[in-house]
Design brief:
Shape: elongated
Distance between the termini: 62 Å
Largest sheet: 3 strands, antiparallel
Order of helices and strands: EHEEHHHHHHHHHH
Strand order of the largest sheet: 1-3-2
Number of helices: 11
Length: 196
C-alpha cells in the first residue's frame, strides 16, 4: 500500500474542535506542508495484539518484539508493527527508559539502573542519556536507601563494611557511598524533616 499524502493541519483550534491531535497526525512525518502517513499493518490480529501489549505498560522495542514473536507472528509482521507503533508514539524506548529509571531509582543506584535497562534491551545511547538525566540525584537516592535500612552512621569497621557492601550491591558508586557514610545529609532529607 503506497503512503497516503495528507495536508498538514493548522495548529489553531476552533471553538468546536478538539485540542488533541488525531492518530494520523501523530504518526505522520512532516515534509514541508505535506505529511506521509505510516501505514497501519493489514493483519488485524497483529494490530490488536500490539495495542493490547502497549496498553498494559511501556516496554522496550526488544521486549515488544519478543512478546509478538511468542504469539507466532512472522518477523516481517513484527517489524511492520514496530514501525507503526513507534510512528504512533505508542512504542517509545526513551519514555520507557525514563519511567524505569525513575521507578528503579527509589531502590538502586546508577550502575544497577543502567545494567537493568541494558538487560531489558534498551540501546546504549538511550541508556547513557537517561543516566545523565538522573545523575544529579544519585546522592539523595543513596541517602534515602541507606536511611531506610540503617539507623546510624557506622561506628566500627565491621558496620562500615556492612553498610558499604549494602550500598554497593544496590549499584551506588564508591564516591557516593563515601559521602553517605561520612554523615553528609541529603538536601531533600533536611527539608523532609522540616515539613513533617
Amino acid at each position: 500500500m503506497p503512503p497516503v499524502l495528507l495536508r498538514q493541519k493548522s495548529s489553531m483550534v476552533g471553538p468546536n474542535e478538539c485540542a488533541s491531535s488525531s492518530a494520523h497526525d501523530r504518526s505522520a512525518f512532516f515534509y514541508g506542508t505535506r505529511q506521509v502517513k505510516t501505514p497501519k499493518p493489514e493483519n488485524r490480529e497483529l494490530v490488536s495484539a500490539s495495542l493490547r501489549l502497549l496498553a498494559m505498560r511501556d516496554m522496550s522495542r526488544i521486549q515488544f518484539e519478543q512478546k509478538l514473536a511468542k504469539k507466532e507472528f512472522t518477523p516481517e509482521e513484527i517489524a511492520e508493527a514496530v514501525v507503526w507503533c513507534e510512528a504512533e508514539g505508542w512504542l517509545n524506548e526513551s519514555r520507557y527508559a525514563e519511567v524505569m529509571a525513575r521507578r528503579l531509582g527509589q531502590k538502586y543506584g546508577g550502575s544497577r539502573i543502567a545494567q537493568t535497562l541494558k538487560q531489558k534491551g534498551v540501546g546504549d545511547e538511550i541508556v547513557s542519556d537517561t543516566m545523565a538525566a538522573i545523575k544529579d540525584g544519585e546522592f539523595t537516592r543513596a541517602h534515602a536507601v541507606w536511611s531506610r535500612k540503617f539507623a546510624a552512621i557506622p561506628d566500627c569497621a565491621e558496620q562500615r563494611a556492612k553498610q558499604t557492601r549494602y550500598l554497593q550491591s544496590r549499584g551506588f558508586s564508591f564516591a557516593v557511598i563515601k559521602k553517605v557514610l561520612a554523615g553528609e545529609i541529603a538536601e531533600d532529607a533536611e527539608f523532609g524533616d522540616d515539613a513533617a
